[in-house]
Structure prediction request, 644 residues.
Amino acid sequence: MTMTLTYPDGSEVEFADGTTGGGVAEAIGSRLAKAAIVVRHDGVLFDLDRPLPGDGTIEIITDTSDDGREVMRHSSAHVLAQAVLDLYEGADFAIGPPIENGFYYDFDIGRPFTPDDLERIQARMEEIIVEDQPFELDYIDHGEALEIFSEQPFKTEILKGVDQSEMVDGHKVSVYRNLDFVDLCRGPHVRSTGRLKAVRLMRSSGAYWRGDEKNPQLQRIYGTAWESEKALQEHLEWLEEAELRDHRRLGAELDLYSFPNEMGPGLAVWHPKGAKLRTVIQDHNRVLHERYGFEPVFSPNLAKQGLWETSGHIDWYADGLYPAMELDDGVSYRVKPMNCPFHILIYSSHSRSYRELPMRLAELGNVYRYELSGTVHGLLRSRGFTQDDSHTFATLEQIPEELGRALDFTQEWFADLGFDEIEFDLSLRDPDKDTGMDETWDHATEILRDALKERGLEYDEQEAEAAFYGPKIDVHVRDALGRRWQCSTIQLDFYLPERFDLEYNTSENTTERPVMLHHAKAGSIERFIGILVEHYAGAFPMWMAPVQATIVPVADRHLDYADKVRDRLGGEGLRVEVDSSTEKLGEKIRRAMTAKVPVVMVVGDKDVESDTVGFRRYGEESEERGVAVTEALQRLKTEGAPPS
Prediction:
């Protein structure tokens, strides 16, 4: 008996039944077989030594592909767990998935891991890799699995939570073995531990079991794995660059913002320079909103709990809400996690006509979300932030045009802020969040899909990633290090207009339900600025920089002239400062360069006499002497003008 396999180029080849993925790779060529990690058969990944199930498409997954690296990292996580159980008697192990650029595994050894522990574990992992232990897939009865893992509480909990429908033949679970080590796993894995060429443990930290702070705290070890030592070293160099760009570090170095312990996790205060940066970004945000036809509105930071019950946030978003405050003789209030219910109240403040639609409302509104303390991360994930929310109320017929407007707005916003790579995801319904509007959801999804196609935008579809009240387009950007950040969302919503009983009068004097379009461009202003800080490594373009030029007097006798130049430039709307400190000239220039100010202007005796300045841009070694102040002013105004 034979089976027919279809290669990626469309050609078909017959193989004997029972042929493995590794056998197919060998048939194609020895070089490909050497690079192979797993194969994809009809969209499903298979171990190289696992017989293929029959006819279908076939693709060889190599060690330099994203899928191949993910499998190597998954296998490395198993080796990590094996090493820890070998070294620490009585250790409990939990889960160990691959993650972006690496992997982790969670353990309980009764104490935190130390750097010395990580060295011991790394050494044992290297021994296991040299031993070239084979990864072997096995299916065992659920009861047998409970016996094998009877002394492992976290594995036992996982097994007890497995539904019969998830088991093979209704009663078997899959495990992988390498020698005496066995772990619950669906796979796939590399053929043997010797296939892992470059594995490095990075750090350890605390992590709650299943991410719930009510559960035991475990110890998580992070690692990374690559197809070669060269690829590993390139990644480590990338990490060093990422560390230098860390927005928390640069925020302190550039005196932009800080995170005082007295305020609690996830909350920042903005220093004068940071506030200038933020103001520039927000001002440009407002300008674009006005250009795209939005009207500004404002709303308070809290409201009666009933508002959030009507909106559905209490039902669907309870974990993200701060606890209720009882005021006004027992009435419960909540600080707001979203702005949308307030904009709905503005719409419903009086009856609306079709002539008023589309109604576009926008707000830079403060919101508060209770993020677990272990998950907050500077500005990138905080508990209090400002959302550039807009909500459009429109007829169904107006929605395609409004979606196009939203996509144009989003692309212009990111281009202005210096992001060239923009990627789109269509986030689909989560079946576990059924709002009882299946047909409406499907219709909304098609409208979003058509809007993306209309503008020729490539996109990926993401299952179960939509919010509870509608499907959405998530917009991602890639920064200078190639990292992918989700920022903007465009969401179509039939659900909230229904919950709030919104209506408008038609031209036939009947009533219809409007459709809502939720749209955030930056998302969180704080998070977006954190991304910008890391993208530019703190060296912002002139129009964005909190200080656009620093004037450095050579000596105290030049201070008056420096102040006059500053006032002259500042009077033209430029952000200029004078370094009036007593340090030597070289130290003043060094300090301005360290602060990454776009332009440093040195003034001395000849400049006072000739109404000139020295002119030196950030990153340049040489200074241009004798530049007329009028010329310097024109350069700064031209280069410092916001995107038009």
In short: The chain has a mean pLDDT of 94. The radius of gyration is 30 Å. The first strand starts at residue 2 and ends at 6. The domain at 261-535 is CATH 3.30.930.10 (BirA Bifunctional Protein; domain 2).
